[in-house]
């Protein structure tokens, strides 16, 4: 039986029932180029109503780097209590492995490695691969990595993926993320470790920051296989943002809650609430 999906007008309609909110960032709070003012206002209002708001993002950067990005986009710090990133959870995985690392990603993501004592090497010399993104995500696709992945696979190098997202919207453009590279590498039979959504470590870190344990938690996000699946695995209610990364894929549902619920059910997923965008 398909679980009913309740459309809500505003977050404040339901926020009072939850002691904490774990909210996605990219695709909900901003699109990589501009903030979503109604979302920022809604989270600030939920905080004033008593909810502890944790921004939960698959960004490969540590929390402070994401905070700086949010500041630059004009996202008020009054709209959240804490930030937990995939990068934060990933650092623990890196710390447990070899210090001889090959990095796939841009230099701006190398703050992930600060204080870990790593040696960044070529793939022929490394013992571990850490993927934070593509080298040039504005122009490259995973197809550009076939030869590199084959070279890594020939050495059976394990990979840590700091961002399990496959794609995100940057403005109106679709940008590939580290998860797309990691998926292609796993298809070669290689070992890939992931710590971001939908996997438990990032939720464990977020839960540890709550002032009170055991409170009802609402997860908010637009990614079916990251945010919704993560909420389902974690055992929390989910507010699905339908006009996000899957807006083209779900266009035939035309925003109808029953048809959106069927789309989620067909993917083995459920959500309790839905909005086209957070407000």
UniProtKB/TrEMBL annotation:
Please name the InterPro entries in this protein's record.
HAD-like_sf, HAD-SF_hydro_IIA, HAD-SF_hydro_IIA_hyp3, HAD_sf
**A GO cellular-component term linked to this record:** cytoplasm
Gene Ontology molecular functions: phosphatase activity
Pfam families, alphabetized: Hydrolase_6, Hydrolase_like
Q: What is the lineage of its organism?
A: Bacteria, Pseudomonadati, Pseudomonadota, Alphaproteobacteria, Hyphomicrobiales
Record CDD domains:
HAD_like (cd07525)
Give the SUPFAM superfamilies listed for this entry: HAD-like
Originating species: Aureimonas ureilytica
| NCBIfam families cross-referenced by the UniProt entry | HAD-SF-IIA (TIGR01460), HAD-SF-IIA-hyp4 (TIGR01459)
Judging by the UniProt lineage, the source's domain of life is: Bacteria
PANTHER family for the chain = 4-NITROPHENYLPHOSPHATASE-RELATED, OS08G0542600 PROTEIN
Task: Write the protein's name.
Answer: HAD family hydrolase
